[in-house]
């Protein structure tokens, strides 16, 4: 009787069905269907019940120690490591690092149970679910690349907050490019784009949010061509630019940002990476680690990228921001609060009133291009005078960096020359 009291609900139900079979009130085939077992198994259960009663239906593993149970010494070591080294790691990531760095192989569920015991893990509150049907992946690598910027405290206070620009392929979830920058700017995206194009070629389309980098959001705009500088670059490279209506629409890059803010941060902590320069050096290895773990094979093995056949200088020209100017009689022009004078070997009278195009490169340099005489010439120019320029307009993603720069300038001792570095950034992409 004591054994029957220890029976589980499932075992009690099984005992009731077997008694009906023994009393011939239920056929063995019908009992097998109810219990979800074979007829042969029902016959075995009937024999056991007749020999031992309900006690024969109780699992013999009840109360026994599992042979796969983690040893006490190993469990103590895991608890110590979870407290001191992996206190904020998720169960799955902690289990991976225990195997990789500590040579301790345990399941992530074992780690989770230990974390619950140590009060290091609590389940997240469930939010109300909204219906966002998943969009099928594109079939080929390079057909659609999702791009986004993730401003975050990537170095956990060891360095200032910064932005990580993320390029991820829609078909395979492969990380294609990562780039750290102080803020999310057009320059940051174009720097990542240059690395991407030189390695893989040009994709067919980019999928982004509706940030002002990718879309002119002013409804009452009456001038201009309706394009941002990033749009003009993608037009030159023949890359289609698509903006998502909701964050869920570009879920792959949004989920990648969440994973990077969890795993990438901890990988850098384990390697004591505390600056953008060190992080940039680690990025190629981390991309390889990510793709090995998370990348999926594409439905179509064909690569949709178009190889870049031009030179690196030609790519720099395509990425450059362009402005038109008209030279004065003295062969001067003004740009971003600075006066420039064009140098010529002769009198230069032919260049008076000439139209020139300024190429602002991603690295901050500038070239003056003049299309005349049947070709495109680069004219040497020298800056000789500066003027005051209006303050930059900031958005919600760059405001924090602007305020932190202001605080740094006003911290004692006050350094007046700290502000002089600001105008130079406006000569290229801001």
**Parts with pLDDT < 50 across at least 5 consecutive residues:** 414-427
Count of DSSP E strands? 14
Strand order of the largest sheet: 4-3-2-5-6
Structural class designation: alpha+beta
Topology:
Layout: H1 2-5, H2 9-22, H3 28-35, H4 39-52, H5 72-84, H6 91-101, H7 108-117, E1 140-141, E2 144-152, E3 162-169, E4 175-181, H8 186-200, E5 205-208, H9 229-236, E6 240-243, H10 251-270, H11 276-294, E7 300-303, H12 312-319, E8 321-326, E9 332-335, E10 338-342, E11 355-360, E12 366-372, E13 375-379, E14 381-386, H13 399-410
Parallel strand pairs: 1-7, 2-5, 5-6
Antiparallel strand pairs: 2-3, 3-4, 8-11, 9-10, 10-14, 11-12, 12-13
Helix pairs in contact: 2-3, 2-4, 3-4, 6-7
Q: Which key features would you list for this structure?
A:
430 residues; alpha+beta; Nucleotidyltransferase, domain 5; 4 domains; 5-stranded mixed beta sheet; 4-stranded antiparallel beta sheet; 18% strand; elongated
